[in-house]
Design goal:
This protein has one domain: Jelly Rolls (Sandwich). The protein has no helices and eleven strands. The strands form two sheets. Strands 1-2-3-10-5-8 form a six-stranded antiparallel beta sheet, with no helix packed on it. A five-stranded antiparallel beta sheet has the order 7-6-9-4-11, with no helix packed on it.
Amino acid sequence: MKTTKHKIIATKHGDEISGKLVEIKLEDGKTEVYLSTILPGQFKGWHKHTRSTQNFTCIKGTVVVMVYDGNNKRYEKLLSDKEFETLSIPPGNAIGIRCISSSEAFLICTPNPSYDPKDKQEKIDLVLPYDM
């Protein structure tokens, strides 16, 4: 039997703590599975991944995921622990997520291919003129 301690990273939107990021499964230095938490009323975003599809499943709480494709098209999808749907977002789209539940929301993300923190062009933080 083996126990693995996971690194917990506080995430911010502007100057406010918005939640946490926990790398659950690492293989060869790449993140295969991570947990993202979002505090009630908080927003995580904007960012985009240039090479990987992001697959989000909400396992606790309710969130609104907003996707902006760069062609003035915005999409919104509600994810919650009532449905357990997985939303797949292709590379190149801006992603923002707001927790609309009264308690902290938990999302599991399985990027494909796995997230490589050494690849500085894979995740790009963005400043967009609107929040959700």
